[in-house]
Specification:
Elements lengths: L2 H21 L1 H20 L8 H6 L2 E26 L10 E25 L2 H8 L3 E2 L6 E3 L18 E7 L2 E4 L6 E4 L1 H8 L5 H5 L9 H21 L46
Parallel strand pairs: 4-5
Antiparallel strand pairs: 1-2, 2-5, 2-7, 3-7, 5-6
Helix pairs in contact: 2-7
Length: about 280
């Protein structure tokens, strides 16, 4: 085969391989998004098992990690992949970034368990820490087992110092769980597969990603909007107004020039001022 023809064939093969790679980059992420939507929908469908309305309404960010695998024999480990969305300045939810949850433990343990994990961020500091890189729950950000039920009391964290509240659902039971020592990190590879090359989590949260996400990924944001709307209705609080054009299809906004977190700072009071949850009548 002549050198010129060989070069053309190799170039075509490279293009086809690249296209095939790009074509299969999305299905895995779409499946992760669909599972996250499923978990959120199923948990919120039963009031007795739902995230309390006050926490959901006033959350700064929410992470859902479906099918987290925990396995071990003396030495144990935990690993899962999920999605994270943050509150925007107008009080609505951003498009989600992909995240990873990992951890290790030592002690008497044996077997394998799959569980869905939900994290609710009660302060902006934890959000900014994650945007800037991975961080360890319980060390870089205080974490506590979350209460269950829309009218549940916040007595599990009497000092109200935890920045993140966590829940886990295994074998159908949804309950607060301590995740001290687990590491939460941005999944840059998944973000770039969905939103385009060199996409950062800040670009996603501020609506500046190079390309819009798929409908499956947008569905996670929409499900959070529905859950938050229900929480506001139960609490009797006003609903924020979303712009007419969804963030996924708007033109990229100018790059943020402010300090860390300036693009999506909360619109409510400082996180230090947190009211207790209402008791059940």
């Amino acid at each position: 085969m002549p050198a010129t023809l060989r070069s053309v064939v190799l170039s075509v093969a490279l293009i086809v391989a690249t296209a095939a790679s790009a074509a299969v980059a999305g299905p895995r992420e779409d499946e992760r998004a669909r599972n996250a939507v499923r978990v959120l929908t199923e948990i919120q469908a039963i009031p007795e098992n739902a995230i309390p309305d006050k926490l959901l309404d006033e959350a700064h960010a929410i992470v859902v990690v479906p099918d987290t695998i925990k396995a071990g024999l003396v030495l144990g480990g935990r690993r899962g992949h999920g999605l994270m969305a943050v509150k925007t300045p107008d009080g609505t939810w951003s498009n989600p970034s992909f995240v990873k949850l990992t951890g290790a433990s030592i002690g008497f343990q044996a077997g394998v368990q799959s569980a869905d994990v939900v994290l609710v961020f009660r302060s902006q500091r934890g959000v900014e820490s994650l945007v800037n890189g991975k961080f360890t729950l319980g060390a870089d950000a205080g974490i506590a087992a979350g209460p269950v039920g829309r009218n549940a009391s916040a007595a599990t964290d009497g000092e109200m110092q935890a920045e993140i509240w966590s829940w886990s659902r295994a074998r159908g039971l949804f309950a607060g769980v301590a995740l001290d020592g687990a590491v939460l990190a941005i999944d840059d590879a998944a973000n770039q597969a969905v939103y385009g090359r060199d996409t950062t989590p800040r670009m996603i949260f501020e609506g500046r990603a190079p390309q819009p996400p798929s409908p499956a990924v947008v569905a996670f944001r929409d499900q959070l909007e529905e859950a938050s709307a229900a929480a506001r209705a139960n609490r009797g609080t006003a609903a924020p107004a979303r712009a007419a054009t969804p963030a996924a299809t708007t033109a990229p906004a100018p790059a943020s020039t402010g300090p860390v977190g300036a693009g999506f700072e909360p619109v409510r009071d400082t996180p230090a001022k947190v009211e207790p949850l209402p008791e059940t009548p």
